[in-house]
Write a structure and sequence with these properties.
There is one protein chain. The protein has 198 residues and is an all-alpha fold. It has one domain: Rhodopsin 7-helix transmembrane proteins (Rhopdopsin 7-helix transmembrane proteins, Up-down Bundle). Helix content is 76%, strand content 0%. InterPro entries: GPCR_Rhodpsn, GPCR_Rhodpsn_7TM, HCARs.
């Protein structure tokens, strides 16, 4: 019994920031990022949707729109992160909220890397190797590639919901509930949206 209460105390201790002044500085930096990034990201999304009409072109604009979308989704997580830092915590003490935050952070990090990569590949083949028709033709399917990237990233980031992360108060392994829900959502997505056979 004493061992159990000691480990619970250790988990609570792990959630607390060791240097509260430093975490207040982190919170200030995150708040400045939110203040600067929110209007800039909103203006970029507005430009892509209303001015460039990115969905009509099969060019790099689709990849860049998805990159901006991933950044906007990441911005949604930052106010909670700033709040935790102000409270002197490294992460949220709520297990579900902590897992959702980690999932969003990993998903958007992966999306940013993937869309920067395909944008770079597209630029490379358009500028340096314009004679490569097969690669250029494949990259013209940018909406399909974008959907594929998002669909691949979802199952790749699911382990962040299943693993026990530091300070999530979920230090026991998932008994399968989260995994079953994720598999059901992915099945419904593939079956209904992409019209895959049974």
């Amino acid at each position: 019994m004493a061992n159990s209460s000691a480990s619970t105390y250790q988990l609570i201790e792990d959630c607390e920031a060791t240097n509260k002044v430093l975490y207040k500085l982190y919170a200030t930096v995150v708040i400045v990022i939110i203040i600067l990034a929110l209007p800039l990201n909103a203006s970029v999304l507005h430009l892509f949707i209303f001015k460039l009409k990115f969905w009509k072109s099969h060019t790099n604009n689709v990849f860049l729109f998805n990159l901006a979308l991933a950044d906007a989704l990441l911005l949604l997580c930052l106010p909670l992160k700033a709040y935790n830092f102000i409270q002197g915590r490294r992460r949220s003490g709520n297990g579900t909220l902590c897992k959702a935050m980690l999932f969003m952070l990993f998903l958007n990090r992966g999306a940013s890397i993937a869309f920067l990569t395909v944008t770079s590949i597209d630029r490379y083949f358009n500028v340096v190797r314009p004679g490569r028709k097969n690669v250029l033709r494949a990259l013209k399917k940018s909406p399909e590639i974008s959907v594929l990237i998002w669909l691949l990233l979802l199952p790749l980031t699911i382990p962040t919901m299943l693993k026990s992360f530091d300070c999530c108060k979920s230090h026991k392994h998932d008994k399968g509930g989260t995994l079953i829900k994720v598999i059901a959502v992915m099945y419904n997505l593939c079956h209904n949206v992409l019209d895959f056979p049974h």
